[in-house]
Specification:
- The structure is a homodimer.
- Chain A is α/β, with parallel strands linked by helices.
- The first copy, chain A, has a single domain, classed as HUPs (Rossmann fold), CATH 3.40.50.620.
- In chain A, strand 1, helix 1 and strand 2 form a beta-alpha-beta unit.
- In chain A, helix 1 packs across helix 5.
- Chain A is globular and about 45 Å long.
- Chain A starts with a strand and ends with a helix.
- In chain A, 49% of the residues are buried.
- At the A-B interface, strand 3, helix 3 and helix 4 of A face strand 3, helix 3 and helix 4 of B.
Chain lengths: 214, 214
């Protein structure tokens, strides 16, 4: 069995990415982050998902991006409600954490090197990337090339949703029997999802689209 | 004044890099890391250097690469003595921390984005890179390109020592009046340098070469 590191936030996209890696026969090493987000509910969801799907080993790395400030997800400013991330202002949404995916991929690379994994799975999607610049496929391609040079080994970043939108991912999640009830998408930190933030709205739309087709 | 992030370990190379950034007229934002190394002496040295040279703002980001293990600098295994890093085994030295520079650069990128810095200074040297794969100029070029895509802004990684060896860097440090007494190179964590580890031996050779020329 080949080992692979899977970036696992605990949402539908990354959980489906984990399911894909397992379906492809990888030994799964999901990696989550406690990065000063205002709630721990994401990492708890990730733990339950990793257990439930039979991951080989799950790690939660503690990183502190608050040292730099600069985002609603780590600062103490309000998360905007009632609208999709994409509608907020022009360009980069306020829930953007600076260089977050770059930091996450660097950590994934570190673990991949330690366990001799040649593959890192990343659940970003190109079409519906909500304005985060480090989710763009050009970025994934470029970091892929750098990553190969960084380790002296060929490490490949697999981004299976590069050409999928949220609805297609939700449909795939259902086909792969992803435990959607264990996933968490909400940007707010309550015990129940707020159903109002951009992440909740997008999740609900995607899951509705699956039901509409079924 | 243009802001720049400077990766500052507290050794001669990164301190000289900070001096270069200041000499070029940048507002300097040095960034150091507490990454589970076995001693805090490095970050203390970095703080003193940042103060002494007149940095605008110094940050120490706490990151925990121990979560993955895999290196003498973060694990509890002995650091080899009496020999240069390059002589140990074939290829990558045991003091290599997996993907360390990649992680450091990702953090630098995060801070650069928050303070709108278009430049990140990195004190790696190409000729004498001691076998760390993520110090190679090909890596710096590739990550440079990825970094530009990650933020949607043009961020450039400056590696002024790409073509310098340790002796040339030491000579430049002296020319720029770098406070060499404040720097720390030793891999061991005592109050005085061990004078035996690879880093101590290289430091001593480089400083001797400057005296020999002078």
């Amino acid at each position: 069995m080949k080992p692979a590191v899977i970036l696992l936030s605990g949402g539908i996209d990354s959980t489906t990415t984990l399911a894909i890696a397992l379906a492809e026969g990888y030994d799964a090493y999901p990696l989550s982050f406690d990065y000063g987000q205002r709630h721990q509910i994401e990492t708890q969801a990730a733990r339950r998902i990793a257990d439930s799907l039979g991951a080989k080993e799950h790690r939660v790395a503690t990183i502190d991006l608050r040292v730099f400030g600069g985002s609603a997800l780590t600062d103490h400013i309000d998360v905007p409600k009632h609208r999709s991330e994409k509608e907020i202002g022009h360009g980069i949404p306020v829930t953007y954490v600076p260089a977050r995916n770059t930091v996450f991929l660097a950590y994934a690379l570190a673990w991949a090197e330690v366990i001799s994994a040649a593959d890192i799975f990343l659940g970003v999607n190109a079409i519906d990337y909500s304005g985060y610049p480090d989710c763009r496929p050009e970025f994934v391609d470029a970091i892929n090339y750098a990553v190969g040079l960084a380790t002296g080994e060929a490490v490949v970043i697999e981004a299976p949703f590069s050409n999928m939108d949220k609805n297609e991912i939700a449909a795939l999640a259902v086909r792969l029997n992803v435990p959607i009830g264990l996933t968490w998408s909400c940007y707010e930190g309550d015990t129940d999802p707020c159903r109002k933030c951009g992440a909740c709205v997008e999740r609900s739309q995607a899951l509705s689209s699956v039901k509409a087709v079924a």
